[in-house]
Backbone:
């Protein structure tokens, strides 16, 4: 599964975080909340690319997210 995520407008309102699958990874009321959630998902999956789209579907920003702090990945 791709660790890249896109924040896109949902046709029924709000914003979706989408990866490579047919279903959204998350749905939020605001774009800011969707961006935060996408960063969490990407970080927990080992890093990747975030693309943020505007209401017209055009990419308005891109960001590379580093690996996050996944408690299942603790070395001890």
Residues:
């Amino acid at each position: 599964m791709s660790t890249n995520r896109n924040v896109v407008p949902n046709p029924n309102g709000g914003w979706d975080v989408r990866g490579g699958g047919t279903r959204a990874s998350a749905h939020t009321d605001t774009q800011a909340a969707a961006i935060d959630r996408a960063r969490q998902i990407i970080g927990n999956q080992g890093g990747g690319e975030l693309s943020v789209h505007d209401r017209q579907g055009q990419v308005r920003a891109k960001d590379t997210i580093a690996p996050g702090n996944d408690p299942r990945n603790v070395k001890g």
Remarks:
- The first strand starts at residue 5 and ends at 9.
- Residues 5-67 form one domain.
